[in-house]
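For reproducibility, we list the full input for the magnesium ion complex.
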Amino acid sequence: MSVLILHTSNASRKRHFARARLHGERLLLIVKNPTWETEFVDRVVAADTSSIEDTVAAALELAASETEKIDAVVAFVEHSVPAAAAVAAALGVPFVSEKTAHIARNKFEMRTEFARHGDVPGPGFGLAHTLDEARKLATDIGYPLVMKPLIGGGSMYVRRVDDETELDEHFELIRSGSWDGFDYDPLYRADREKYGAALLLEGYIQGDEISVESIVRDGVTHVVAIHDKPLPMEGPFFEEVFYCTPTRLAPELQARIKELTANAHDALNIHTGATHTEFRITADGEPVILETAARLGGGPIYRSVLTSTGVDMVDAVLDVSLGRTPNLDPPAPVRPTGFFMFFAEKAGVITSISGVEEVRASEGVVEVELYKNIGDAVQVPPHIWQAHGHVVFTVDDAADLDARFAELRDMLRIDVAPEQ
Ligand SMILES: Nc1ncnc2c1ncn2[C@@H]1O[C@H](COP(=O)(O)OP(=O)(O)O)[C@@H](O)[C@H]1O
Ligand SMILES: [Mg+2]
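The corresponding predicted structure, in tokenized form, follows.
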């Protein structure tokens, strides 16, 4: 059997490819600039993946030149989901529809569908093309609020503003960055035309944040893991640093989160594949949705879920795509697991990276990935959508997760010199 992977370069997905390699199918890959990915697949085609049409054309040409038919299409990264949906439709293999793929990538359309559903609680929201529109909308929604790109990712250009003075100060920079920062995105041109370079404004949801990893099969949602994000994330920017699982939330709340995750899938018509859904839990215990992505959780989430629950979500998504029954109930007991992203201390060129081997050799550390090397120029949040590396670790007692995170984080250091 053959599986076609649609990919956009992303250093945090090595483990996904390595696992897919072991799954047993012939692997075909379409990516713009193939690098390390080639070692994990049987055949690579370079195509301009910032264009869905070019990607579909490349996929059809590839399919015609293969002796075996392509049985499944998968995408591990957000940017490849719309193209994967278009390619799957062209090849007649299971995936979410092109419409769903688009809605799950456009935060305004996603909020609109959640609101239409009726039981996917969300904040007030709306579009603003100009500062005047933003001021009016802000009086309806109420401060504090969050400004964000329609087609963003990785918290880039997501900013909290607390009052009109802050809105006036930051609106234009965030609005222009929200489009100019994503011009490589396959949805960029069409959505910019459709929405006239508008910005999304949402009511700020005060509360603890969680992420929910699911597999959907024949329209049925199986929540595999819930991660807490114990560090305060109150803005103005929202870089994601530390996650851990199992969740500390009460069982009734977990049940409600599972129900709302299934509702979110219904609202977006996600009936197959993996999803990554984020919520905040308000002080009165109400989950409010942030977003759902029609793909596996990013980077370290894969290994964290595998370590904590024994469920291999790359296997599961391949199984579901190929029409097989995934193993979602392994006998392994749940292990307390955490992971964190790390960044350079400031923007510049990396001059040294220390502590990596020390962390790798530390008790309970299951994965250390470094996405950058000495000599690479790096940015820091909020200007980037990806950290410079990650660590996944496990402990015997869940009560030790936060302290262990702090210890491991303090061992790592990326020094930079100002860029010339
Ligand atoms: N309405 C909101 N209220 C509170 N925090 C928010 C809100 N929207 C976004 N955030 C914060 O910003 C982060 C990124 O926003 P999100 O909508 O998930 O976009 P993306 O992850 O695609 O960049 C969230 O994880 C959350 O911490
Ligand atoms: Mg998000």
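The chain has four domains: 2-95, 123-203, 207-335, 336-420. Residues 278, 290-291 surround magnesium ion (ligand 2) (CB under 6 Å). Both points were considered when choosing residues for closer inspection.
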